[in-house]
Specification:
mainly alpha; single chain; 2 domains; 76% helix
Length: 310
């Protein structure tokens, strides 16, 4: 089963890595494994033609089922659940499409798969809201007794309702995270030539569409002046759209700082420091998003470049 692009041992190795990652899902290592399970399949897809990828993938699934029986069948279903985004991304890479196309297509495919999963889960009687409540309660039980006494049932129900209203946000955020991580790791691992999985443009060159500025400003105004009515459609839209746009402009702020660092030859640790700050100090997220907003609205980079020339 040798292929011009890949040795037999390389393929066996990646099949083995994939099987081990899938088996790790049922161990305490699942916290790490679940973030990586798209990578080996995408690497195999990039290294092999269809006629070799399909049997290699099916062999991995057969090993899982042979080792664990019914439990292995559950892992097989999880694997098939994550397969469509891999195929879409791999198709884009093999067709030499821009990496932005592959990432966007993979993200939308992942979102579609998650929505289908939620619909099927609802049909078979799975209660996501109750599951969210159980997760919240289990986390509250881990808090000190003094803190638990200050939490009442009404507050728990309100938090669960808020989380259930933000499911669209979580779907988008989950999909973007998974696809970007998969792209980055697969490019590091799969490339035998740099053109196999192309790199995204440098972070310093990333620019959001200017139209998003108006959407963000409208969201800010609505969030300030429109009454927050639980269950209202507009409230649900704001709950999901506002954080998505906030994080989009935070990424833009990271791009702006990266541009500044590159232009002025400053420490490359500055963009990393900004990311750490906005993650661990949530109040700074609004400041960072405003920096990104101004970067898109005004020609700040052009002025900085002109000043640097002078």
């Amino acid at each position: 089963m040798n292929h011009p692009k890949s040795s037999l041992w390389s393929i066996i190795g990646w099949v083995g890595i994939y099987v081990l990652l899938m088996l790790s899902i049922i161990t305490p290592l699942n916290i790490v494994a679940i973030h990586l399970i798209l990578v080996p399949v995408l690497v195999l897809f990039m290294k092999l033609e269809w006629k070799w990828f399909i049997p290699a993938y099916l062999i991995a699934l057969a090993i899982l089922y042979a080792l664990l029986g019914d439990l292995g069948l559950i892992l097989v279903m999880i694997s098939l659940f994550f397969l469509p985004p891999v195929l879409v991304m791999g198709y884009g890479y093999k067709q030499r499409k821009p990496p932005q196309w592959s990432i966007m297509a993979g993200t939308f495919t992942m979102m579609a798969v998650l929505i289908v999963f939620l619909i099927i889960a609802r049909i078979i009687g799975y209660d996501l809201v109750q599951d969210l409540k159980d997760v919240v309660l289990s986390n509250i039980e881990m808090l000190p007794a003094a803190v638990q006494e200050q939490v009442n049932t009404g507050q728990i129900d309100q938090l669960v309702f808020l989380l259930s209203q933000m499911i669209p946000f979580f779907i988008v955020a989950f999909s973007v995270y998974y696809i970007v991580i998969t792209h980055w790791l697969s490019r590091k691992l799969a490339n035998t030539r740099q053109e196999v999985i192309p790199a995204l443009p440098p972070v310093r060159n990333w620019r959001l569409p200017r139209a998003l500025v108006w959407y963000y400003i409208i969201c800010i105004l609505l969030d300030l002046f429109v009454p927050n009515e639980p269950g209202a459609f507009l409230t649900m839209v704001l709950l999901n759209l506002f954080p998505l746009l906030t994080w989009a402009f935070i990424v833009q702020a990271v791009s702006f700082v990266s541009f500044y660092v590159h232009l002025r030859k400053k420490s490359k640790a500055l963009p990393v420091l900004l990311v750490i700050v906005v993650i661990f100090l949530p109040p700074t997220q609004y400041i960072a998003s405003l920096i990104g907003l101004f970067d898109v609205m005004f020609p700040l980079r052009q002025r900085m470049s002109n000043n640097n020339k002078e």
